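Lab channel / #folding
Pinned by the channel admin:
"Please post every new chain as: sequence first, then the structure tokens as a reply. Keep commentary short and put observations after the output so the thread stays searchable."

First post following the new format, from NK:
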Amino acid sequence: MTTLGTTAFLTLSLQGSQAFDAKDTLNQETVETQITNPVDSSQPLTPENQNSSIVNPTATDSNSPTSENQMATLELHRWKYQLAVTVKVSQIPVITFLGSRADLAQLQHSDNPSKVESQAIIRGKALVARLNQLSQEQTFKSQSINVNINQDKRSYTITVNSQELIKLDQGTILPDTTNKLAADALQITNRLRRLMGDAPPLTAIAQTPQSGYATQGMQKRVAATRKGMASWYGPGFHGRLTANGERYNQYELTAAHRNLPFGTQVRVTNLSNGRTIIVRINDRGPYAHGRIIDLSKGAAKILGLVSSGVAPVQIEILGR
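Reply from TO:
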């Protein structure tokens, strides 16, 4: 496996919250991540822009659980010259913890990068461990996942059965960020609810009794609304160049549209089940009669139309 630039390898425990020696294993669960030199990016978390290689979590031996047995996994990459740690559930990016430029530089230049401590890595590992634990609990229901605005009015908390799961602040973003913390918080929560147990999406962020604060910035101005059929595309196009020049990743939340400008954010609602997601336009199509948008496999999975192939949808154009 060859990459451009300086390469550093980092082996992390998915269960622990502290860094450990690369030769050790904890609970036989590890994630191997490759990091390459940083490049700046105005489009977060797209392979072409971040220009990085990522190795999916792997088992350490034949008796270890593989990433296929784990609902949640961890990937490290760079984003705008800084370290980014993304948690995925069933291969769908759910939340990204942001480190610093110093974190990324330290990982790249360390003789033993597995001993480098970063708050973003620690937070990511802790969340992955908790999500995998929840997925094994027979009493867990994803309807119990909720989000509240905190008393400081600048952060949010995702809870499970009213117990804190993760705090969302300036160090956390939606992988395909809306650049609004409130909107990111709602999207992250709904992805967890959907992917952890097919719970219906929330439509608003709950207020804590102490906040007395009306959440702002959750709804982007809708430039136009259209209805039609949505389809999805994936395996045969994965890794190929899209119309905007980036490499297509079927697990990213993107879509093809005939004429919307690249980078446009579009809210898609499956009219058959009410599920909603925001996607980014990065390709052209579909060209079949009656179809107005062609979704990535990751987006189609969240909207619940992978098996049917097509579904009636409403799209709301939110701008860039």
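NK: The longest helix spans residues 119-136.
TO: also worth noting, Confidence is low (pLDDT under 50) at residues 1-66, 208-218.
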